[in-house]
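Quick note —
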Amino acid sequence: MFFDRFDVGRHAVLLHVRLDDTETFDAQEFGELARSAGIDVVGEMLASRRQAHPRWLVGSGKVEEARDHVIAVEANLVLVNAEMTPGQQRNLEVAVECRVMTRTELILNIFADRARTHEGQLQVELAQLKHAQTRLIRGWTHLDRQKGGIGLRGAGETQLELDQRLLGERIKTLQKKLGRVERRRGQGRRRRHRSGTRTIALVGYTNAGKSTLFNTLTSADVAVQDRLFATLDPTMRKLKIPGVGDVVMADTVGFVSRLPHTLVDAFKATLEELKGSDLLLHVVDGSVLDSDRRVADVLEVLKEIGAASVPMVTVLNKSDLVTKGELPLKDTLRVSARTGAGLENLIDALGRALGVEGCPIEVMLPAAQGKTRAWLYEAGAVLDEQTAADGGVVLTVRADNRLLNRLRRTPRVFLRNLGPVPRISSLPN
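Predicted structure written out below.
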C-alpha cells in the first residue's frame, strides 16, 4: 500500500509462526479465515523461534524454505499467522517474491468484503486506515523531500509526512461521521429505556450460528453462511418473551481470537449496543473441540469493551452435530438452531434472566378491566384463565417485576401468590 508491492494473489501458503514454546495458535482457524476471504490454500509451513528475527520475523533458513515452497506449489501469496513490522513484511516479500499478508490484514480484508451498510463500510475503512498509520514508518522506499511552491507540497515535506497528514485528515472525517452514528444509536437506546423495552444482544465466536438462531427466534431473514464473519452489520428484531412481552434482539458481529484492536475501536458504535443491553445471549459452537478457548476469547473482548458486567445466558448451539457424550460445557443449555431442539427451554431461560418470577401470581380482574387483561395476554404472561361468579376473571400470571408492578398500580386489581408452576415450554407466536 505504501511501497512497491506484489499484487495480491489467490493461491496462498500459510506460514504459522510460534515465537514461544508456550504460545498457542489455531492453524485450522487461520485456514478458515483464508478460505472465508476466497483464498485457495495450497500449502502450509510452521516456523518456531525463541524470538523474532529482526529482518524477516523467521530465520534465514525458513525464508529459503518458504521461497522454494512458494515456487513448488505455484503460490502467489504468503499469509503469516502472526504480526510483523513493516520492515519485516517488506523484506519477506522481496525474499519470497510474492505478496505477504499478516493475520490482521487478512481479517481487515474480510471485513471490508462483508460490510454492506454505509455504517459498516465507514467502520471498516476507519480500521484499515488506523492500521495503515502504523505501517507508514519504514514503509516507503522513496522518502526524498518534495519541492515547495504554489500548488505543490510544502517545502521540505517528505512523502512519508504527506501520507501521514492525508491519513490523519481522513481518519478525523471518518471519526466525525461515526460519532454521529454513535449518538444516533445512543438516542435509540435511550428511547427503548424510557419505553421500558428490554434488549437482548447475541454475542459469540464467529460462525457459532448466531444468525441462524436469530432468524429462528425472530423469524428474520438475516443472511446465513457457513463462513467466518458472515454477519458484520447489526440487525434488530422484536421477540416476544412470555412474562416480559416484546423485547428487542440484536444480532452482532462475531468475535475471533486476537481480534485486531483497530477493529474493536472502529466498531465502537456497534459494540456499544452490547454495553447498553439488558442481557447478553452468548452462543457457543458445540461442534468444535476448543469451545473453552473460544468462550475465553469472547469474554476477553467483552471485558475490553466494558460489557463484562452485563448479565449473560450461555447456550450451546449445534448440539445436533455431535454425540451427547462429546458435548463441551456440560452444564450449559443445549440447543440446535437448525432443528429447533431446545429452543423452548431457551425462551424460558431468557425470561427468567430478565426477571420473570418463578412462582405464578393469581390476578383477579373485575369485568371493567378488559384492557388490563388484553395487555397481559399481549405480554404472553397468562398461564390460565377462569371466569369469576361476579363476571370478572381470575388469571394465573407469570411475569417479571415490571409487569407485576404495573398490575399493583392498577385500581381494583388483586394479586395473590401461588406455588411453583411448570416452566413455560412453548415458543411464542
